[in-house]
Amino acid sequence: xxxxxxxxxxxxxxxxxxxxxxxxxxxxxxxxxxxxxxxxxxxxxxxxxxxxxxxxxxxxxxxxxxxxxxxxxxxxxxxxxxxxxxxxxxxxxxxxxxxxxxxxxxxxxxxxxxxxxxxxxxxxxxxxxxxxxxxxxxxxxxxxxxxxxxxxxxxxxxxxxxxxxxxxxxxxxxxxxxxxxxxxxxxxxxxxxxxxxxxxxxxx
Length: 204
Hints:
Oligomer: single chain
Shape: globular
Radius of gyration: 18 Å
Order of helices and strands: HHHHHHHHHH
Strand content: under 5%
């Protein structure tokens, strides 16, 4: 029975559960404040954190599976594509909440953003769209394995850096935001250890 549940909770079913759950939670959070600006800003914060979690799981899946081979890391490795697309869904909801904030409170939105937000955030979303579009077998085959690896590896590291900046810049005002940097640092350390392990194995 546990194995059956694990097999069911994979692939596109996993993505559907993630996307529907995140959408329902966003509606519930915004609805608590009658879908006004405060509720929209709560959704922005919530989706930033859900995106962080899903990104770290997807970006660290291969390293975890290499360093610790067990049922959970194997499941994570098999489903990293769908967790990654779930991350894209989370950040899509994040973008929708930002657009709602801009529409409802233009002055507050202008005060909270700047040129750097548009430029670097826009690059981040361009990577997310491109990585999501090439997360299907046909599109991945169309661009070829080398281009796919460059896109997903480069995009992954860029998004990692963006998360570090986005959460890190809030630490002076809210020191507890330092906690959000922990999973990001753990993921990068795991990836570096896994790369060193793979290099050692090839040499041997």
